[in-house]
Amino acid sequence: GRRQPTAGRVQWRPVGDSAPWREIHEAGHGQIWLRLIDAVGAERCRRQVDVVPRNFRIEIDIGTGNQAGVVRLIGLAGAEVRLGPDSPTGVSVNLAGDRARIVCSSLPGALPPPLTFLLNWPGSQPIALELPYPHRGAFFQLAGQSLPNDDWIPLGRLGGLRLFIQDPASGRHFWLEGELIARPDEAVERFRQRFHERLPLLEQGRIEVSLLPWQDRIASLLASTQTLDAQVRLIVETVQGERLAKIRISRFDAMIEPDRAASLVRIPDDSLARLGSKWEGRVQLEMLRLWAPDDPAVPLPASPNHAACWEVPADLQPGPWWIVGRDGDWTRFRPL
After folding, report:
1. Vertex 215 angle, CA 212 and 221, to 5°
2. CA–CA separation, 287 and 263 (whole Å)
């Protein structure tokens, strides 16, 4: 039948507080619970939200060269402002009335990760506010996490990759260059395939771009070589040729390696660091018969005596085998 709208009223109270629920006309800041109760007082739904004062606003002056960048938080209404964990050095916070002025010194190299500020109103849990470091530059983000410059991600995750550029001069052009590196261990290639495309104009000094539209171009470059270790390096450049940020795209972002003497296959430490928490329940290794690829795969048991290792059966049929590693349904590991 037809869905009927729920009648009722909205109430709220601070997160972590067992005080009575307050009516919606009472002002509140910070982390709060919102709930809808119906005409008989039964709770129909509840949601946690972050609330800032009505007049709260953010102003940013983007620094260039040795000039510091400045973030101004205005309309704090009594909030305490603190820097979040892992903040870079050279950042100072000055409070004056209902305003905070954060000065961020110029740092050499690539643009630092975004800054995290904790806004804490009395009687409430702090709100985490994340803002780009206020300096001219660029960086890549994957699923909301900023990546180190020249990091390495697999082609299959390109849909979650975004590029962020900021510059005090709006309307400035930047370029995205992609170049195929068939052998990452070589510093110079005799011939390189590449593309070079202009990025959209900056608006109000900033732009955020999804890299998904370039997926087919990157996949085509990787498919043009038989080298499984091939990479496409994406580089963000100014029109003067200054390189602001770069990242590498490859078929795989994790490796497995053999220990033939012990009949084991293991994940090296650098690949293990990429897997995140609870990888033990997700990662599976199996062996495929290359002369009969349609036959069922042979799963490899995890070694009880060695961490991040799998045992290769001793009674395998002679012939060429392929070892494949999966992270859930994702063929993440370079085959062995």
Report:
1. 160
2. 13
**DSSP H stretches of helix in 237-276:** 269-272
Structure tokens at 319: 């012939």
* pLDDT value at 110 more than 80: no
- Distance, CA of 72 to CA of 180 (rounded, Å): 42
Residue where the block lists tokens 């470091």 = 133
The pTM of the full predicted model, rounded to 2 decimals, is 0.73
Q: Which residue has the tokens 């050499």?
A: 108
Read off the DSSP letter of residue 203. Answer: B
Q: Which strands, in side-by-side order, build the sheet including 127-131?
A: 80-83, 115-120, 127-131
For CA atoms 296, 301, 302, 303, give the dihedral sign. Answer: negative
Backbone angles phi, psi at 202, to 5 degrees: -70, 145
Amino acid 205 reads G
CA 193, CA 195: separation in Å to the nearest integer?
7
**What are the tens digits of pLDDT across the range 201-239?**
888 888 899 999 999 999 999 888 888 888 899 999 988
Count of Cβ atoms closer than 10 Å to residue 63 Cβ: 21
Q: How far is CA 287 from CA 21, 296, 323, in A?
A: 59, 9, 4
**Which of 158, 121, 131, 119 is CA-nearest to residue 142?**
158
Helices (H), the chain: 215-223, 269-272
Apex CA 314: angle with CA 312 and CA 316, to 5°? 85
Cβ–Cβ < 8 Å for 90, 107: yes
On the CB side of 333, CA atoms within 13 Å amount to 26
- Would you place residue 108 in the very low, low, confident or very high pLDDT band (cuts 50, 70, 90)? confident
Rounded Cα–Cα distance for residues 16 and 124 (Å): 8
